[in-house]
Structures are given as C-alpha cells and as structure tokens.
Amino acid sequence: MRKLKLGLPKGSLQEATLKIFERAGFKIYVSGRSYFPSVDDAEIEPVLLRAQEMSRYVEENALDCGITGADWILENGSQVISLADLVYAKQSAVKVRWVLAVPENSSVKSVKDLQGKRIATELVNVTKQYLRKNKVKADVEFSWGATEAKVADGLVDAVVELTETGSSLRAHKLRVIATVCESTTQFITNKRAFEDPWKKKKMDQVVMLLKGAITANNMVGLKMNVQKKDLEDILRLLTSLKDPTISPLSRKDWLAVETVIDEGTVRTLIPELKKAGAQGIIEYSLNKLIY
Fold this sequence. Notes:
The protein is α/β, with parallel strands linked by helices. Helices cover 31% and strands 32% of the residues. It has helices at residues 14-24, 51-59, 70-76, 124-133, 147-152, 167-171, 191-194, 197-216, 231-237, 266-275; strands at residues 4-10, 28-29, 38-39, 44-50, 65-69, 81-85, 96-103, 118-121, 139-142, 158-163, 174-183, 185-189, 219-227, 245-248, 254-262, 279-285. A five-stranded mixed sheet has the order 4-1-5-12-6, sandwiched between helices. β14 (245-248) and β15 (254-262) form a beta hairpin. α1 (14-24) packs across α8 and α2 crosses α3 (70-76).
C-alpha cells in the first residue's frame, strides 16, 4: 500500500494541529515521547518534527508534505510548494508577527538606532536579511529560549520575537519598534510529491478536509420555523453562504429555514430573529464546511 509521509509540527503548533485534524475526520494518537503517531488512515504515515525543521525535510524529500510556519520556510530558505494557508485562529485574518523589540526605557526608536548593537532571536537569517534591507550592521545571535528575558536583563540590546497580541512583550516591559515579518501556518510539499498523481490527490483531499474544518470553526448552523407572512423579514436578517434553505412544514403557512452564519453574529442575531417571528430556533456547531 502506498503511503503519504506527513510531517506534523511538534511543540506550540502540535495541540492545535491535532485538534484540526480530528475535526477534519482524522484521529491521530501520540504515544508519550514517540515521534511516530498513529492515525486511522492507512494511507498516511505521520511523523512529529519541530516546525523549525519541517521545510528542510520536505525540501529534501524525506517527507512528502508537512505543516509549518511561513517564517521557518523563509528562515531555512527552503524551496517548497505551499498548498494552503491553515489559519487556526477563530479570527481568520489573524497572522503572527516577528517583531523587533527593545526595553521600554531604551533610547532606541527605530531599527536605524541598532547600528553596532546586539540582537537575540531564533529567526537569525530573516533578521539579518531585514537588517541588510535597512542598511544596519548589528550582531545577531541565536537564542535558545527565554529571549525576552535576555533583553530585559541587559544581555542584549534588542530581540526579534514571535507575537500574536503583544501581551508577553508588554509583561516583560518591552516596546515594539518594527515588524520584521508576518507568518501563517502552511501545508507544504515538494516538487516530487506534487508531481506524483497519487500523492497529489491524497494531499488535496487532506487539505480540503482541513480547510473545511478550519472554516467550520468560525461558523454555526441555524434552524428555525417561520410563518410565511414573516419570511421576508427573516430573510433580510440572515446572511449565508448562498440562499438559506427553505422547506415547507406539515403545519399550513409555516416554513423551516436553515442557514450557516458567522459565529460572532449569533448573540445579536437570534434576539432579532425571535422578534421578527422566528420560532423553535436551533443553533448547532459544524465539524466541516466545504465550499
């Protein structure tokens, strides 16, 4: 039997990735410290690797495909093919940022002020490229962790660190002076796997299900009963992927209306639907939503 060798990110992305796969219909079991999980799909062979290394192994054909951040693809200079952005956050527009930060009381106001200074980061190559672009010469050193603490303790002058909300940086009394790059989670493959018809078909199926699970994470279904006389008022309130589904009920002059909407609108929409005449309103969660 042919198998698709799939790299799954170990570390900060691991839990979110396994949850998305579960919603997509794949049950993945990680045993203790094993790097070889089991999955209920005999055509997939999963391997756990750090996201920082993933693109190198995919590029070298050791893996057919994998999930990693666009930041680490840039850092490694990997020549890989991105099949999809997989944004796990509830807010689908959210991207993580690598930012240049200094202590709150630092005299540094911009990247130009870091000439001859020392910067700590995990993202060394991308940081060096950013400095060259801005014509700044600084000493960039690799950080094995606790990067924010290093600048707070005065060991370095600045850090380039990953952030979503900036709360951790503020907690360490750091001030952001620039964004070095943005990143999203990506499903990547190499040319050899991409050009293999069986592997390409299998990857496309996995990506479709994953994207369906991610899309559904932001949406809910709504069902309700509506009198025909109130239908136009109800439809004006509803938004959906296409037109809502409308079906006749056994009760004369009554209809069943069903639609899919953004989860964030439900708490204000349901009271309005009720006021407009909707009855028996049911909200339900979705596992997958395939366009």
